[in-house]
Amino acid sequence: MSIFRRPHYTSEITNFIEEMKQKKPTLESEQRAGRALLWDKHLDRSLLEEYSEARVPMQPYVYQTQPK
Question: Which InterPro entries does the record match to this protein (predicted)?
């Protein structure tokens, strides 16, 4: 036996996640569907360019009034 060989260790968190996946096999697909609702969006690059060009620069001090 090699001196570098260690017994197989799994953490409590890994065991918990694996147990949860066994109890509810649809969990991962539900998570992916939820992520797709909020985060996985296709962006229109031309609109993003227009938005950045239309941006108005902010004043150094927001509450300062404009001189007349």
Answer: DUF3460 (IPR021853)
